[in-house]
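Lecture 7 notes. Example A: sequence first, then its structure tokens.
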Amino acid sequence: MSGESVPPLARSTLDRAAHRRTDPQWLAEAWERARVLVLDSTAEGRALVRGAAAPPELVLLGSGELPEVPRSVPMFLGVEPDGVPVFAVDGPLPELPGARAVHLRDVGHLLTDRDAGIFTTALALLNWHLRHGYSAGSGRPTQVDEAGWSRIDPAGDRAWPRTDPAMIVLVHDGGAGPDGRCLLGNNAAWPGVPGRRRYSCLAGYVEPGESAEAAVLREVREEVGVAVEGIAYAGSQAWPFPGSLMLGFLARADADAPVRVDPVEIAHARWFTRREIGAALAGRDVDTGDGELLVLPPPASIALFLIHRWLDGWLDGGH
């Protein structure tokens, strides 16, 4: 059993307190007593954690403890349940005893709800700022405003953070028990590892004028040539690499229908049984059929969350 009721990067305990973003007097006072997360944009947005065992603890500093002047203005993330405000800044990671630099991809699933929410929000904001230094309307340079939640150009043209909606779907045959099957694909853009091949759920961006469910139908048909039905929403999470919102679905398909991959998108696709997926998750070798060993999606991904939902009998329970 996965034990997760929501995707790993969908967890948070922060009150975002959006009404405070335009209150400079409150923000200035809050900064003096804040907890601050330092992210290093030169190291893919890594942050510091302490602790070798799970869950590692995210390192937050007092605003007066920052070792260097940050590269960014403070970004206000919200207020903790104990009333302490939380900010994030872009800057070099300090050298602290027992601390190590980590990527959200690597530890997001191990963090507490509180730390997962802080890290995910901070990284999403940082990546948006890094990509929006100029106004899309005027082409002029923009400056951070509203405590990190907008950017504005000299003429007053304002932009707010955006995320790109994307669907991701676990396609299954509706079968019960260990012989029930799911359809996974190996993306043509993924780097190869000799002797191993990563398979994951099918995914793609939602196009303009399209619903998420319509995107599921289209993407599965385009990528593997299979028609799906019974589309069911399962959950969502941010994927700030650099700025997506992953909308997770489950859908049924006929496992006897021919699989025809689009080689531009998908290098390999095949049906796997629950028995095979369970074995891979248990650390046992599973041959993908051509001598390669099966590698599943990383634990922080919503793809593995969907696989666990199917593997754990969620579908068989009639949900």
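Example B, a different protein, same format:
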Amino acid sequence: MMLQKLSSFMAIFAMFIAITSATGLKTDYYKYTCPNVEKISKRITEQYVGHTPNLAPGLLRMNFHDCIVRGCDASLLLDPTPSNNQTEKDAVPNVTLRGFEVVDAIKGALEKECPGVVSCADVLSLAARDAVVTIKGPWWKVPLGRKDGKISLASEALANIPSPFANITTLTQNFAAVGLTKKDLVVLSGAHTIGIGHCFIIQGRLYNFTGKGDTDPTLSPSYAAWLKTRCPKLVGDSKSFVFMDRITPKVFDEKYFTMVTQHRGLFQSDAALLDDSETKTYLESQVTSYGSTFAKDFAESMTKMIEIGVLTGSQGQVRKTCGAVNY
């Protein structure tokens, strides 16, 4: 019996080792080659986000949009090529992204400190974490060692980034395709507790939901009326916006979940979380417990997300600048 238990333990232990080392990432990856990498990222991110707090949701969103397409390989950061090929930056879901200057500043400082060592993919994952911490949000470990990809296609971003118009089935499929669960879906959606939503995205939901000049009936009537005062009909510019969390828009807390349960989720993808028993139960549990596990859950889901499809070893490269591949 003892041998059987020992054998079972060793099998589980071996499986654990395989899982934890599968990505090839380590928290001390730059211990000897660039030991100040986390200090530099933290310092520069705090400078930018401290001055402009809205960069925090921007960097967090950028990190997610990068990882969900081709994995966390900084393909999102690549600029269009001389032959005018459209990169992920050009895709509709990414045209309102903010925070590229923060990543570039960190990368520039690291190139002076330890040239050619730290990847843009690692910089982006660190910057997103440090930005959230700067606004007093949760902290999570960022194991390092990612390499940068060489391919970036606008078409792939459009096809893979979850749409604000998606229903629960599509959202679940989007997340499952990259190894994320329904719990990860609802937890990471909680990032909408900070940041803004642009009016042009919700025009149809407010003014022509079924093509008959109507409003989405799942929206709280009072919330819909308020949104219409902030987003007048036919406003199609990319500058008009509202906060996704109207209750505490600049605080990383559970109030986004409160908004959704009150049918005041800004996007259709927010409202869709009420259409599944598992995601709805999580929403309600955070509301009734005042977000008792949200910070911990968010850290855990982010730790999973930033290891999606990573390139390691000789699979990619360390770009000299984040906007262009090395030639």
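Note on Example B: The beta strands are 196-198, 241-243. Residues 1-21 have pLDDT under 50 and may be disordered.
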